[in-house]
Specification:
The protein is an alpha+beta fold. It has one domain: 3-Layer(aba) Sandwich (Aminopeptidase), CATH 3.40.630. 28% of the residues lie in helices and 37% in strands. It has a seven-stranded mixed beta sheet, with helices on both faces. A hairpin with a 4-residue loop joins strand 6 and strand 7. The longest helix has 15 residues. The structure holds coenzyme A. The site of coenzyme A has 18 residues, from strand 4, helix 3 and helix 4.
């Protein structure tokens, strides 16, 4: 008899201080210049919208959104390397877009490295477009790397 493949249980919820070790662990596996544990703690303390995606009750991704002065800014979005290309990054991004719209925000911004092709593909798929460059914004192996600033206009149906 063939055993049916069990679909993973996925849910998105608010991040808590108890999640910070798991989140920092994914961060270290995902970025050459990761945020420290303290940066995530400060995001929670600052009241940013800090979100985790759980897969079978384990954290598989997270996202952080700041909303101020009528603008939303995506500060981080990341999926554990073992669980990429399963649609979780897009689910996290859709969740942030929903949260921004629910706060009556008209525009949502983010910075991304021009070398981050997978992230750029995700943002293009969701209709973000480039509005500016921030020169030498990111630390890099040799010197600094520019950031692309992307924006998406939010309407009730976009
Ligand atoms: C960017 C990131 C969040 C995408 O998460 P993910 O769960 O792998 O992405 P998804 O499976 O939801 O893919 C959604 C879309 O993103 C794009 N994409 C994601 N992975 C891709 C890949 N390996 N190759 C090409 N496009 C890719 C595609 O447009 C994809 O849509 P499609 O499946 O219809 O082609 C993930 O690669 C990641 O965590 N990277 C490290 C952290 C990071 O760089 N974050 C962004 C900082 S600005």
């Amino acid at each position: 008899m063939i055993t049916p493949i069990q679909e993973a249980r996925v849910r998105i919820r608010t991040m808590t201080h108890e999640d910070l070790s798991a989140v920092s662990n994914i961060e270290r596996q995902s970025y050459q210049f990761p945020w420290s544990h303290g940066v995530f703690r400060d995001c929670l303390l600052a009241g940013y919208q800090c979100i985790v995606l759980e897969r079978n009750d384990e954290i598989a991704g997270y996202s952080i959104l700041s909303i101020a002065a009528g603008e939303a800014h995506i500060l981080n979005i990341c999926v554990h390397p073992d669980f990429r290309s399963l649609g979780y990054g897009e689910r996290l991004l859709d969740d942030l877009l929903f949260r921004a719209r629910s706060s009556s925000v008209r525009e949502i911004f983010l910075e991304v490295r021009p070398s981050n092709k997978h992230a750029l593909a995700l943002y293009r798929k969701k209709d973000f477009h480039k509005v500016a460059d921030r020169p030498a914004y990111y630390q890099a192996s040799h010197g600094r790397e520019d950031a692309n600033v992307l924006v998406k206009k939010l309407t009730t149906d976009s």
